[in-house]
Amino acid sequence: MGIENLLLGFHIAITPYNLFVSVVGVTLGTIIGVLPGLGGANGVAILLPLTFTMAPTSAIILLTSLYWGALFGGAITSVLFNIPGEPWSVATTFDGYPLARQGLGGQALTAAFTSSFVGALFSIILITFFAPLLAEIALKFGPPEFFAIQLLTFSSFVGLGGGNPLKSLVSILLGFILSAVGLDIVTGQLRMTFGLVDLMKGFDFIVAVIGLFGIGEILLSVEEGLSFKGVRTGMNLRVVFDTWRILPRYARTFVRGAFIGFWMGFKPGGATPASFMSYAFAKRFSRNPERFGKGELEGVVAPETAAHAAGVAAMLPMITLGIPGSPTAAVMLGGLIIWGLQPGPLLFTEKPDFVWGLIASMYTGNIIGVVMVLAFVPFFAAILRIPFAILTPVIVVVCALGSYAVHNSMIDIWYMVIFGVVGYVFKKLDYPLAPLVLALVLGDLAENALRQSLIMSQGSLAIFMTRPISGAITAVAILFFALPALTPWWRRLRGPAVPRAAREI
Amino acid sequence: MRVADIVTASVLLLVSGVVVFDAVRLGIGWSTDGPKSGFLPFWLGVLMIAVCAVIVAQAARRADARPFVTRAQLGPVLKVLWPAVALVVLTQWLGLYVSAALYTGFYMRWIGRHSALAVLAVAILFPLATFFIFEKWFLVPMPKGPLEAWLGQ
């Protein structure tokens, strides 16, 4: 069924005009992805008005290409500046930046781009052939399953994240609390605003990310003196090919990351948890987990594969069900309606040229993307020769621009500074920042899922255990939450050496 | 480190106390159409109080003489932090572009000791470039001040 439809799609995607549109989209997207704060969703929203006069297929190709570009661009700032352009590139900084500081930025970037491409390709192939089937599975998901998935994500921070599990838990709780500030859209009540108008809008995760990771990271990195250290890249074709020769070693990480990414990706907010989960699993299964966070190439491969697989998978429910899987997909969905298309399963039968043109453009867009970012990294490397005293104010100003652009509000720039100081303190005291941001992003969704589940069950928490799918997921989540308490006990039981079996739960 | 750990966890204890207080005001029980607004915040706050209390107890028992931040470390950190705060304060009065120009120019001269020509070039061209990218290209309005008003933007 798929092949001739896909050929029809390629007929549309490979016209010179659509290829040109794709190149423009990827270029703009990479620039947007590199600028912290101006993410894919933002870029797509800003460009949307420009597409009204275009043919719908070309318009969606422009916006999706922008999205691929932003996904690639996020990796560049994560590795070279330790500033994640997008929440799902946060995990890439853990090992990408240490690698860049050791002078292996070229390897880290090649690994990041290649992993992104592999993850994306994996998801596109799955979308092409298994879209109807997987859409059907996702249709069966109710609020309890959705909440269970969220529980699993956060439990993996506590159980698999390493560090102090109590501090991981505090980060998660604080993130959820911050996300609850402001208007409760279900009851219409104001929560934790204490009569302050500025608090009514709540805290946006983009501002939190810019502050915690952008400003906080700069503060932490200058402790050793006012300079950005060793983030030069030796990026040329030789490095690319040499890195490609190493990468097959991580075949299992690629496969695991791609599967985690796809599985998490077609649910809202999936890319970020997928990248963290993939990272946590890679660390857990690695023969040398102690090298993670200090510059392990596998620590770049794992989150990037998953993030891109998830980013692409987010398109699946948008085109098959009319439910966006990510904020960017949500903006694109708005575009579809403006272009006069009705999103949903009918699109496959009524507008096959649009759907299959879009799917084929995912192949071409990602191929164009990976070739372009690999070719133009020397251009980005030039950014690093700029002296510290110029780069610091530029980054701070760009962070301020990004924070302001989210809601056009001055208070967000203040929040950015406050989050920066909090990020600095938390990082020094080993409170992990990633779960805080993730909880802030997913807070509303998780609370809605919890509410709907409790309404379904008349207030009984048993609903998460009695439904088969959510029961299984919840059981694993509870196991992960209990893992820090169980591990010492397990070790004593099995002798001092940590047995392999204990790590491969 | 020990003192900073206790202070941070205590501040978080205080925050969770406020959360629980507000949640009780909103109602933590069950209304006719599901859980009330305070339901989730209440349990988040209660859990956080418990966890933070354990962290305080753990930190208090542990002997850790390392300082949270040394004097040598704090200097450069503040040299980044206070100009950034100044930028935000200035932005409220002068708009983002003028503030960015002043901030970038000051920082280049103060920390980098760049030549006056380089300072002027970057401090003027960088905000100008961001102006065209954000206001003209991407149509994202930024806070503006008297200079932009005078120029009729």
Key words describing this protein structure:
heterodimer, A: 505 residues, mainly alpha, two-stranded antiparallel ribbon, 2 strands, 74% helix, 1% strand, globular, B: 153 residues, two-stranded antiparallel sheet
Roughly what fraction of the amino acids of chain B lie in strands? under 5%
Distance between the termini of chain B: 50 Å
Rg from Cα of chain B: 24 Å
Terminal-residue CA separation of chain A: 39 Å
| Count of DSSP-assigned helices of chain B | 6
**Mean pLDDT of chain B, nearest integer?**
87
The biggest sheet of chain B, with number of strands, parallel, antiparallel or mixed sense and barrel status, is: 2 strands, antiparallel
Fraction of helical residues of chain B: over 70%
Describe this structure in words.
The complex is a heterodimer of chains A (505) and B (153). Chain A has 505 residues and is mostly helical. Chain A has one domain. Helices cover 74% and strands 1% of the residues of chain A. In chain A, strands 1-2 form a two-stranded antiparallel ribbon. In chain A, strand 1 and strand 2 form a beta hairpin. The C terminus of chain A is likely disordered. Chain B has 2 domains: 60 residues; 81 residues, no CATH class. With 153 residues, chain B is mostly helical. The longest helix of chain B is centred in the N-terminal third of the chain and has 25 residues. Chain B is flat and about 60 Å long.
